[in-house]
Amino acid sequence: MSPAQQRGIALWAALLSAVVCLGFLPVSRLVSVLVMLAMIGLIIAFWYIGSRRAEPDVTLHLDDLPEATYRQPVVLVCGDLPLTWPQSSPVLTVTQGCWIRVEDHQDLEQVARQVLWLRPDWGRQLSVMVSVCPQKHADSERLTSRLLALRWQISQLRKKTGHSVPLVLNGQVGSAMTNDMLWQAAIAGEGMRVWRESSAPSSIAAWVTTGGSPAMQQQVLMNSLMGWFHKHVKAVFMDENPDVPVIAPVAVLWGMGPILAGSLATSVWTAWLSRHTAMQRVTGWQPVGTDSTIISPFPDFILPLLPEGSGLTSQARTWRCVLSLFTLAAIAALLSSGWNNRQLVHRVSFDIARYDSISMDNYDQKASAVAILRADAVLLDDLARNGVPARLGLGLYQGERLRMPVLEAIRSYVPPPPKPQPKPKPVPKIVRLDSMSLFDSGKFVLKAGSTKMLVNSLVGIKAKPGWLIVVSGHTDNTGNPQLNQMLSLKRAEAVRNWMRDTGDVPESCFAVQGYGESRPVATNDTPEGRALNRRVEISLVPQANACQLPGKHPAPSQDDGASQLNGE
Question: Which helix (H) or strand (E) holds 217?
């Protein structure tokens, strides 16, 4: 996967995290933001670690690789390589495909990862060819160890890249029996074929028939190579091993040429021929010019016959990752929406059950419960009118079936009876007498004939135990204030004395006050206002122990309160 694709996936994951956290999580807004920031931090950390792991250590300079759009087979060649290479670069591009030389078999996995890093879309084009020349090995155990290491690397390469990476096995020997390169190939589903530069591919039988005795001798040597190869090379990749999976080759090649540079006089090949055949005594079985630097050519003919490897391309892997992240986000959103709807149903159902469990005569709790139901009804109505939010949506909304139960519960509510209204407190009755009707100007002796007016005005004033008869005198602002105050007091005393003597009211029932001009009820700037200010006021005021005869403590009457309010 390219760096751009990795960044795109990281951004996609961050976007999905933000949508799920802010739109669906059943938590508060603050917690949602904190969770989103934590998720974005994890995504950045994973992207950074993944990008560092994906970038391989540079082991080869692959500047001359074909373009990324190149779709021919790409084969990593390892094992017994030619002593020389057609060019300085490890990349050899031919008509049928591309060969990449891997000098050290321990670097096979690293080189493959480097190629896939530079060309992410080459995963299904990539193959590995292990070349073995028995004439170059003196120790079969050491050879087996190298092949086991390659088997392990190929298995790890398949596991880490997700691609099948087909395996091609190639065995080569040098012999003076042939003047050109002879190849025989066993390809899955096609049988054995003979490949030569000078002729078209044919079966072994046809080649031996047309080639005569030389072809027969070459085939005997080739059969010996096949027998050795199956036992010492192919079996290493095919034998059951609990630690390493079996790696079956898609093609097995055997090559024989006139010259093989680097051949040993004594090798595993000579030992095999000595034990199993008599070829070591046949003239021409050994190559000529073993010290030559001439290289053996590669089997280019096999490139078009290689099967396309399995596995996802970089683009397909990216889309799979995108789809997987979307699926995870969708699952998280569905779970969150389901939980939010469950909580809504649970809360509203609980509110209805709580309302039903409260007795109707428990007015305070019933009113509180119905207020909660009214808030629920407003919420459900708003959702019905304006649409369901994302956190309750995705086809899981259950609030519509709760609207009618909530409304029915609200309709069943009977409000408490109104509380009895307290009777308004009447203003205490005050009898206001005109001083000029009772007294002459500047005098405090009742005039003749004023008693009749007193009797008519004071009908509502009755002395009762616990009530005090307050008699207050008032004047206008005409004259000396001190004299006015004294005159008002004397006039109040005169009215008190008349009421005491006429009604046989005890002295303790009265309180006499003279205010002079200090409490006007109208303006003193006009004659009418001054006439209103010249007055004597009589009122009842509650006071303990008032209006009681010495030594007597009568019980309060039931209408004392009413008397206080009504001024009786």
Answer: helix 204-229
